[in-house]
């Protein structure tokens, strides 16, 4: 075993112990997808057009759902990190209001003036941190929106196809059961 891979029965297998729960769930559903695909291929004649459409729809739905779940988890983590960073920035800024150990020559006003002369201010610590993480949260939200839109577009496309083709719709119902 090296670098997260192992050779098993002549096949390279990825060791997934480091994967997120969302990725593991997607891989599990994809495993079911591949079993279903093998079942449909057992006829020996190849896949029909409807079977190919079904498999494409299933695979696209599984992957899109996995992307949405992963992006939502990442967004939650970014928001949590942003909150933690903001709290630490506030704590750091508040520590500038206390006289450092060993400094006895300055009064509170002189200490504040010294920090200000060095560029230390609420804006340079807290506001800058907040602005930085707001950009990250906004970007993560945009990714969630993009993947959610993709998933909706896929589902809408499948629904439109099924609405136009009753035979395909019947096949889908049979294969989904």
TrEMBL record:
Protein name: Uncharacterized protein
